[in-house]
Amino acid sequence: MFKAILLALVAVVVSVSAGIWWLAQRALPITDGVITLKQLSHSAVVQFDERGVSYVEAANDRDLWLVQGYITASERMFQMDMLRRSALGELSQVVGAGCLPHDRLMRTIGINRLSQEEAKNLSAEVRANLEAYSMGVNSYITEKRGQMPLEFVLFGYEPRLWRAGDTIAILKQRQYELDE
Questions:
Q1: Least confident range of 25-29, 93-97, 142-146
Q2: pTM
Q3: What's the half-sphere exposure (Cβ side, CA atoms, 13 Å) at 142?
Q4: Helix axis angle, 61-88 relative to 164-179, nearest 10°?
């Protein structure tokens, strides 16, 4: 009887470990091979150095920002989403009521409103770059639906699509934090 219980316990531990490994592996960024982004106007090349730092070569700025958005999302989507939620006062929706004071502060300051106003006043070039970056992030989010990193699985949600204003909101919150 003891051997049967021990064997069952070992089987459960191995199965759970294999499941966690599989969840973690499926969300790793692709650093070798070919990825097709329909929105690219020309092909682009991404190379990674020995430290994993990406270098993007593209025919134009739009393609460069689009690829950079995709690469950044593939490596840091959970961090990006947490930064966005923090800036917009939406952390408590995922993390819980302990974040309500922070969310109230961010909403009182109006980071979301300020970022939307600033987005309206951007130069056409900067706006286009932010839109291309957001398009790259959204390509990753759309492509990986149901295959998000382990953190999303543990918290039980998937990120919504990225907006140019989200990037500005994160920068605005960082600015606020540095001014404190």
A1: 25-29
A2: 0.82
A3: 13
A4: 60
